[in-house]
Amino acid sequence: MSPTSRHHLRPLNQPVKLQNVLYEIRGPVAARAAQLEAEGHRILKLNIGNPAPFGFEAPDTILHDMIAALPTAQGYSESKGILPARRAIVSRYQEVPGFPDLDVDHVYLGNGVSELIMMTLQALLDDGDEVLIPSPDYPLWTAATSLAGGVPVHYVCDEENGWNPSVEDIRAKVTSRTKAIVIINPNNPTGAVYSQEVLTELVEVAREHSLLLLADEIYDRILYDGARHTSVAALAPDLLCLTFNGLSKTYRVAGYRAGWVAITGPTAHAAGFLQGIDLLASTRLCPNVPAQHAIQVAVSGHQSIEELLAPDGRLTQQRDIAVRMLSAMDGVSVAEPRGALYVFPRLDPEVHEIRDDERLVLDLLEQEKILVVHGTGFNWPAPDHLRIVTLPWGTDLQAALERMGNFLASYSQ
Ligand SMILES: Cc1ncc(COP(=O)(O)O)c(C=O)c1O
């Protein structure tokens, strides 16, 4: 008998807790793209908000400080992250209304915002607790809520109303199990930047129902046309608010995995939750230490993102190309993004009869070798949207959208 046939190996099935955990941005369509690449095809990847592959280089000072720190960054750090980096975060927020008394002990560093989102929801939720999450959303929020045993409850953002959250819908969806509301501003995937008035209304709902505020503000400095960003924390000094941010987008070092969460507002009622965050920060030992050394230099001094966002800056120009070309397509409309790195166009169902939007993006990939993400991957209920990143150089973006326009003109399901 051969050693391999001696034992019966028990099947290792996917655990039930992963059933509702989805991340389509790197899902089956992206896997098919990887296969096509392995076969020698060149795929234009417009699916991930990853600036570096599109020639957005990090400021030299960031690389310099990280390289200089390597010899002394071999050991674990404090679980929350190194003190100079956390102090730099406190200084960064001194200029931002809403964080006047931010305590350095209330800043936690993470391997990207992603890890901190996971930790927060694990520390917060009992089975069946509900979290209000926008639809469309950045899908990690939904996935992390499900994984933590919670129930994601999606509130509608209204395309007709500049993709602003519907406060009416939020109010209708609050229950006795609702623990928190997630606000993604500037928004991924819609590019909406919420006004102070809209945010005030959202905070008021949180106040009335004693909800924890989870503010994902990773794009707070990626704003177009002079749009102004208001931090949720500024409007809610009387509520517990966790503000998430990091180096991935504004500083173009998504691969370094450096993020933070800043905790503001009253904490006495939330000792258990905050001890849970401490516990989970300890169990992950610490965030990647070399990348922590990039934080201080990144957040202080010259903010090179501003050049990219000027009217003639690369990011603005690319956003303009995407909006112009999509709007010119038959049966396609798009709300102009005022922040972040994406467009989320609508395919009019009267013109484009799409029943399965994942099928659509797969067909686009097979035929045109262009990879985008279907709208339902962002917990949007109808198969009538796509998300496209606006990171490629204008000429590449233009060529890709031309091909996409031709593809859509003759596509049917
Ligand atoms: C809204 C939003 N939040 C969080 C993240 C995760 O970022 P990080 O690279 O810091 O994990 C992203 C990444 O695309 C994002 O778009």
Automatic annotation (TrEMBL):
Cofactor needs: pyridoxal 5'-phosphate
Q: Which UniProt keywords apply?
A: Aminotransferase, Pyridoxal phosphate, Transferase
Record-listed E.C. numbers? 2.6.1.2
Q: Name one Pfam family in it.
A: Aminotran_1_2
- Report which superkingdom the organism of origin falls in: Bacteria
Q: Which InterPro entries match?
A: Ala_Aminotransferase, Aminotransferase_I/II_large, PyrdxlP-dep_Trfase, PyrdxlP-dep_Trfase_major, PyrdxlP-dep_Trfase_small
The record places domain Aminotransferase class I/classII large at 44-392
What Gene Ontology terms describe what this protein does at the molecular function level? transaminase activity
Q: Which family does it belong to?
A: Belongs to the class-I pyridoxal-phosphate-dependent aminotransferase family.
According to UniProt, the name of this protein is alanine transaminase
- This chain's source organism reads Ornithinimicrobium pekingense
